[in-house]
Amino acid sequence: VNCPDGVGMSPLSYAKGYPEVVRCLIGGGAIVDAGVLLDVISAGNEPSALMVLSKIRANLDEEKEREILGLACEKGLKQLITAILPSTKDTSRKKQLLATKAGSTVTSYPLLRSILAGQTEVVTLLLEKGASIHVQSAEGGETPLLCVAKLQSREEQMKIAKLLISHGAKGGLCDAKGKSALHVAAHNGNSDLVRLLLSERETCGVSLDQKGTNLA
């Protein structure tokens, strides 16, 4: 059951998108590890992902948990996200997973990654779980509202923007290149988001300062 074929693929590798087949193979002795879990998450197979997680959770280190959580956020697998995050009693552990290490890229941050993927329900879930609305990536300085401004889907963009602002997101914060969400929205010709940011400037901190300083 664990024997690879000529291109190195095992039966479990081929079955990653089929929950019942994955269940049968695991029941038949298929070996599971973090790589298998990432494969089934990539396929959007949440039932199998939950099954694999339950078998390997004790062997996962923090770095691998972060990787798994980030991909689950991108794919919108809410049950898996809830299973990965520690209980509400373990707040320090949860904060470690929802944050990330210094120097990491924007996709290393669960909240920012879910925003870039347009996963509105996941964004809501992460905020409920304690994700910081003021997170800013270490490498590029991206903020939640900056990530929203880059979304292609205008419908999801407005939903997430309103959600973030209601939780206190700061629209005036700038990235490493000095751009705020307002800059990006204007560059993309997004009048709805520009209008929202300006209408909520008292709440989200957008400034009309000509010098472009003290935007937050």
Description:
- With 216 residues, the chain is mostly helical.
- Helix 5 runs parallel beside helix 8 and helix 12 packs antiparallel against helix 13.
- It starts with 10 loop residues before the first helix and ends in a 12-residue tail after the last helix.
- It holds the Pfam family Ank_2.
Strand composition percent: under 5%
- Unreliable sequence segments: 210-216
> Mean pLDDT, rounded to whole units?
87
* Secondary-structure element pattern, one letter each: HHHHHHHHHHHHHH
Could you give the count of β-strands?
A: 0
Q: What is the CATH-assigned architecture of the largest domain?
A: Alpha Horseshoe
Q: Distance between termini?
A: 57 Å
| Count of folded domains | 2
Radius of gyration: 20 Å
CATH class of the largest domain: Mainly Alpha
Q: Give the CATH superfamily of the largest domain.
A: Ankyrin repeat-containing domain
Helix/strand-derived category reads mainly alpha
As for the CATH topology of the largest domain, it is: Serine Threonine Protein Phosphatase 5, Tetratricopeptide repeat
- Overall, the morphology is elongated
The description of the largest β-sheet is: none
**Helix content range:** 40-55%
Please tally the helical runs, counting DSSP H or I stretches of 4 or more residues: 14
